[in-house]
Amino acid sequence: MSGYDFHRGENPRILFFFWIVMAAGVTLLVGLGWRQLVAYQKYEEIEKRQTERRILKPGPRGDIYDRKGNLLVGNRPQYSAVVYLDDLRREFRSEYSKIIRAEREALREAYEQTPESEREDSQLTPNYNDLQWRARQNVIQRYIDQINHITGRDDTLSLRKIIRHFNEQLLLPLPLVEDLNADQYARLIEQVPVKSAIQIHTDTARYYPYGVAAAHTLGYVQNVNPDPEEIPDDGIKTFTFKTKRGKTGLERHFNDLLSGETGTEIWRVDPLGFQDSRLEMKAPQQGKDLITSIDIDLQLAAEVALGERRGAAVALDIHSGEVLAIASHPSYDLNDLSPFIPRSTFDEINERGAWLNRAVQLSYPPGSTFKLITSIAGMRHGSITADTQHDCQGLYRLGNRIFRCNARYGHGIVDLAAAVEASCNVYYYAEGLDMGIDVLSAEAKRFGLDQKTNIEVPFETSRLVVPSKEWKREQIGSGWVPGDTANTAIGQGFLLVTPLQMATVIASIARDETRTRPTLRALTNEEAQQVDHGGEPIGLTPQQHDALWEGMERVVGKDGTGRLVQIDGLRIAGKTGTADFRAHGKGVNLAWFVGFAPVENPQIAVAVMVEGTNDSERYHGGSTAGPVAKDIFLEFIEHYPERAGFASAR
Fold it and tell me: I need a surface site. Which of 302, 392, 458, 620 has the fewest CB within 10 A?
């Protein structure tokens, strides 16, 4: 045993390395465990960001109907010829190879033909990036040429759009030819080879069966990128088709209701970013429908009656405030704005001044229709009674100024009913000055003429003027004079209202209240019976009420200013008006008519305003605006005979 050397202790160096290895092993195991059990979500998210892509597809918009179920706005298929870039990768590579070989050969020949003394140190090399984009454009243009040959179109696609699509919309179809008509679509379906990369992509575009009818009210949409807030913030790169958003009219006001639910696709992509396999899919859903208060038959009657003239016409349900018709001219065909607005179309509409909704976006002096407010103000003030009379000799002297009546030689002695019937200015000059501007202004404000109606269309004008002494001092910078009161009493001067406001005024008078809240949404019977317009009783005595209504009914009688509105069997109460104002430095004449029917049980209120284009066109309320209102009343009888007091349609 003594020949052997036994070591019973440990070697310190071996022990030291042992513990180092053990520590490293434990660290490695802990790290692996941490990544697998704790931090796996972080790395899973990193993998998703690198290998997954999201595609958002907006759902079709909901439809818009009139109160009887007629389609006013719907969706039509919009066909486009497209290609998916992933399907063209082999052709891109082949074209690029041809171009690069040709470019290298061209550069070599140019180098060899250059004298040695002028040569660069080395032969020039091609711009590979530019050649790659040229190759892609060549391939894509060949497909466009094929489509043009079949359809007879002459479309091209700029390199800028191709580059942008590659960089921003790689997974989406590249549109080669958009908005194919039915004939072009049929030709492509028949003649494009089955194995061709060309595909027909179907989207939706808004469709308007009645063209120009209620164009300003219905509105149109624009194609926009989705709101960034609608895109999930989870790091996955997202590609989005354009969505349709309401730009004007009901399309804008009810955009949230009409907008469809966006669909989603999740794709796994290869290292170059092209589709590999679809992981998830949620189909888009159509938006909700909107039932409007519009009656398309009354709407068309208003449109036809206005014809080529500038103006507006509004018809309201007196009790519910529902808008039965609301027309503005000049108008435009909404189908010309779908799926997009060509520049030439925009310019043509703009040149005609047709973008403006004259029913709500422009304000005008109401002319003699305002005499109804003056009458009510005077009766409530106590200065006008049913028997109040004035001797009209065709003019009224106020200081050194002369204010003329609409009748050159005067109306003679007139009471309230006769003054309304003949629209006697002298009567209202005198009574307006008697009650004063404070009374007049307060009454107009009681009927809401200084406020927006808040109807469900955007851009209602706020340029509404019910003048007062304070208003003139603040806005004009001068004091109030008696002549201002005289002009205000007959609906001229500084007064500015919209046709829709005057429709609410005449509806309120028919209902013996001061306010009417118009709405473009169809109400249920229960909702219509519970409408609170927010006003108060007008406050006339029975005698005062009868005198005013007698005058209004006589307006549409055989000797009244609105006699052309007469309809056998239908009692109509109304008021005509003519006003002058300046627009764009030119004098413009306005014709007004407001009225309701039937007198014994008021159901429908109508307001019509027609613009003259210059001083030479003398438009008069009874002869110009009145017949428009008559056509609307006739259409009401045709479709609502019982409400109009007839046993059946005429």
Answer: 458
For residue 313, the domain's CATH number is 3.40.710.10
Which two tokens mark 214? 């209620």
HSE-up (13 A, CA, CB side) for residue 565: 36
Summarize pLDDT for 49-97 with one digit per residue, the tens: 567 888 889 999 999 999 999 999 999 999 999 999 999 999 999 999 9
In a domain, 34, yes or no: no
Q: How confident is the model at residue 34 (pLDDT cuts 50, 70, 90)?
A: low
In this structure, the answer to whether residues 425 and 471 fall within a common structural domain is yes
Of 170, 187, 207, which residue constitutes the final position of a domain?
207
Residue 198 lies in a domain: yes
In a domain, 21, yes or no: no
d(CA 375, CA 414) in angstroms, rounded, equals 14
Above pLDDT 90, what percent of the chain? 75
562 burial via Cβ count (<10 Å: 0-12, 13-18, 19+): buried
Report the predicted TM-score, pTM, of the whole model to 2 decimal places: 0.86
Ramachandran angles phi, psi of 123, nearest 5°:
-65, 140
- Edge-to-edge, what's the strand order for the sheet holding 604-611? 323-329, 310-317, 604-611, 586-597, 573-583
Q: Looking at the structure, do residues 85 and 56 belong to the same domain, yes or no? A: no
Handedness of CA 471, 476, 479, 480 (dihedral sign): negative
Q: What are phi and psi of 579, to 5 degrees?
A: -140, 155
Sign for the pseudo-dihedral over CA of 474, 476, 478, 479:
negative
Q: Which residues pair with 402 in a beta bridge?
A: 397
Task: Please write the tens of the pLDDT for every residue from 280-306.
Answer: 899 999 999 999 999 999 999 999 999
Best CA proximity match to 83, nearest among 95, 92, 75, 74: 92
Q: Which of 175, 207, 239 is the last residue of a domain?
A: 207
Tokens of 599: 């007198």
Residues 275 and 182 in one domain: no
Q: Looking at the 3D structure of the chain, how many domains does it have? A: 3
Q: Do 362 and 264 share a domain, yes or no?
A: no
Nearest residue to 521 via CA among 61, 62, 64? 64
pLDDT level of residue 240 (50, 70, 90 thresholds): confident
Residue of 617 and 476 predicted with greater confidence: 476
Structural domain containing residue 279: 46-70+209-291
Q: Which of 13-27, 93-107, 279-293, 401-415 has the lowest mean pLDDT?
A: 13-27
Q: 256 with 160, same domain?
A: no
* Terminal alpha carbon distance of the chain: 138
CB proximity list for 113: less than 8 A, separation 6 or greater:
none
Q: For residues 606 and 373, give the distance between their C-alpha atoms in angstroms, rounded to a whole number.
A: 17
CATH of the domain at 238: 3.90.1310.10
Is the pLDDT at 213 greater than 80, yes or no?
yes
Contacts for 236 with CB less than 8 Å, ≥ 6 apart: 48, 49, 52, 53, 54, 266
Q: Are residues 578 and 447 in the same domain?
A: yes
Cα–Cα distance, 449 to 400 (Å, whole number): 32
- Looking at the fold, whether 178 and 230 belong to one and the same domain comes out as no
Question: For position 6, what pLDDT does the model report?
Answer: 46
Tell me 248's DSSP state. Answer: S
Whether 317 and 428 map to the same domain: the answer is yes
β-sheet bridge partners, residue 588: 581
Band of residue 123 on the pLDDT scale cut at 50, 70, 90 = low
**Residue owning tokens 């941490």:** 34
d(CA 520, CA 360): 13
Does 352 fall in a domain?
no
Are 297 and 635 within 8 A, CB to CB?
yes
Q: Which amino acid is at 16?
A: F
